[in-house]
Amino acid sequence: MGLFNVSHPTVFLLTGIPGLESSQEWLAGPLCVMYIVALGGNVMILLAVRGESSLHAPMYYFLSMLSFSDVAMSLATLPTVFRTFCLNARTIVFDVCLTQMFLIHSFSMMESGILLAMSFDRYVAICNPLRYASVLTNQVIVGMGLAVTARSFTTLFPLPFLIKRLPICRSNVLSHSYCLHPDMMKLACADITVNSIYGMFVLVSTFGLDLLFIILSYVLILRSVLAIASREERLKALNTCVSHICAVLIFYIPMIGVSTVHRFGKHAPRYVHVLMSNIYLFVPPVLNPIIYSAKTKEIRRSIVRMFHR
Predict the structure, then answer these.
(1) Mind telling me which residue stretches traverse the membrane in this protein (predicted)?
(2) What is the pLDDT of residue 1?
(3) 158 in any annotated domain
(4) Any domain includes 144
(5) For the chain, how many structural domains are there in total?
(6) What is the pLDDT along the chain (309 residues), one digit of tens a residue?
(7) Rounded (10°) CA dihedral 173, 179, 185, 187
(8) pTM higher than 0.85 for the full model?
(9) Cβ neighbours of 292 (radius 10 Å)
(10) Residue-wise DSSP of the chain
(11) What backbone phi and psi angles, to 5 degrees, belong to 266?
(12) Which of 289, 257, 293, 296 is nearest to 273 (CA)?
């Protein structure tokens, strides 16, 4: 069957909170606050790093990349979430849904890659501080950023076409207020083995390997820190990793949870799927700027100076 002869719905219907569709307007306020914090906090970090010459260092360049990916993720979900919860406009055109799905998954993978780059930054800073400046040059940082971006877009480029080749005739109602690949492929009335295998391959070969290398880097960091004689120096070294560890946890724990629920929790209530997916997409962009602003005094000072100016 040709790609363009397959039947697709003209539009999908998005879903807010299952069972609360008629009274979900009360969620509009908290969602607006979350988006304001996510967009405002991350843009503030970007401006702080850009405007403060003392923050022109590898650690803060990677933080800027993380903030950029959080802003992009928030902007990718904002239109449909706002329309669903605030305007009760649930329809989304099929091709627009494919585009949003691609962007959400791409920026999510980009964030995973950036977290891996940040763990490498902490590894070099603690385990080999004398070579820090020579290893993490501006060219290397730019190269890592481009590699992370290229990996995200090339790895996920097939996803829209894998969905487009499937006849979708079971339903046109999605489980969330945005488009995700696992949610869309379940609506197909055909064999979805290829989609499922490719999705698992992407998950393991990118997110899985990123997490493995992050854990490995912290094993090496911990071994190096424990070799430091002074207790105060050990705590000081570990303290530089706290923000990054928090960012890793708030990204990977919900991601593992939502992947597990989608693949093995077929009989779980729908609100569990919705809750896990919303935590996965909304919580990291909101908490990352708060964590880094609270734990990094250089960022705090720069933001305060920015407001004074």
Answers:
(1) 26-49, 61-82, 102-120, 132-153, 197-221, 242-265, 271-292
(2) 40
(3) no
(4) yes
(5) 1
(6) 444 456 788 899 998 776 665 666 677 788 889 999 999 999 999 999 998 888 899 999 999 999 999 999 999 999 999 888 888 888 999 999 999 999 999 999 999 999 999 999 999 999 998 999 999 999 999 999 999 999 999 999 999 999 999 888 878 888 888 999 988 998 888 888 999 999 999 999 999 999 999 999 999 999 999 888 788 888 888 888 999 999 999 999 988 887 777 666 667 777 777 777 788 888 999 999 999 988 888 888 888 888 776
(7) 0
(8) yes
(9) 24
(10) --GGGS---SEEE--SSTT-GGG-GGGHHHHHHHHHHHHHHHHHHHHHHHH-GGG-SHHHHHHHHHHHHHHHHHHHHHHHHHHHHHS---EEEHHHHHHHHHHHHHHHHHHHHHHHHHHHHHHHHHH-GGGHHHHS-HHHHHHHHHHHHHHHHHHHTHHHHHHHTS-B-S--B-SSSS--HHHHHTTBSS--HHHHHHHHHHIIIIIIHHHHHHHHHHHHHHHHHHT-S-HHHHHHHHHTTHHHHHHHHHHHHHHHHHHHHHHH-TTS-HHHHHHHHHHHHHHHHHHHHHHHHHH-HHHHHHHHHHHH-
(11) -60, -25
(12) 257
Asked if residue 277 is part of any domain, the answer here is yes
Give the per-residue pLDDT at 24: 65
- φ, ψ of residue 202 to 5 degrees: the values are -60, -45
Alpha-carbon span 105 to 100, nearest angstrom: 9
CA 267 – CA 81 distance, rounded (Å): 25
Q: Position 119: which residue type? A: S
Cα 205 to Cα 208: distance, rounded to the nearest angstrom: 6
State which residues form the domain around 32: 9-151+171-308
Residue 253 lies in a domain: yes
